[in-house]
Write a structure and sequence with these properties.
Elements: H1 4-20, E1 24-28, H2 39-50, H3 53-58, E2 62-64, H4 66-76, H5 85-99, E3 104-107, H6 113-124, E4 128-130
Parallel strand pairs: 1-2, 1-3, 3-4
């Protein structure tokens, strides 16, 4: 049976590693939810997620959005409208693949099945989940 002291020291090492290395943090929030697939409203949702990227960068971490990867690929695949076959082939799967490279998720905004899926997947993979910028620790390396 391992000693409790040894368990604590491992947890301390994990926490120190989190604070000593930049995390790649996926920003997950509504994209289509509540927009009626209106392109301007979806763009506003992306802008809202992007507004969290600079503060994460200033905490010395690496912010990412699935939309940064998905939207150019969706366009290249010939998607003509949100929810069509090329869109569905790429949009959520690319975010799920990206999530495998991330260390944490920042869940923002309101109701979103896609963002909730990212959080659930992240939890299953043992990633840290944050619900506000204030919860994210500063990385103390340059």
């Amino acid at each position: 049976m391992p000693s409790r002291w040894r368990q604590c020291s491992w947890l301390d090492l994990i926490w120190r590693n989190t604070l000593a290395n930049p995390m790649m943090i996926l920003i997950a929030g509504p994209y289509r939810s509540g927009t009626g697939d209106d392109p301007e409203k979806m763009a506003a949702n992306v802008h809202n997620m992007e507004a969290h990227a600079l503060p994460i960068f200033r905490l010395r971490h690496i912010p990412v959005l699935g939309e940064w990867f998905a939207l150019p690929l969706v366009k290249l695949a010939g998607s003509t409208q949100v929810g069509d076959e090329p869109f569905n082939e790429i949009f959520h799967p690319i975010a799920e693949r990206l999530l495998k490279k991330c260390d944490a998720v920042l869940r923002i905004g309101g109701v979103s099945q896609g963002a909730d899926l990212m959080v659930e997947t992240a939890k299953e993979n043992g990633l840290q989940i944050y619900y506000s910028l204030e919860e994210i620790p500063t990385n103390h390396t340059r």
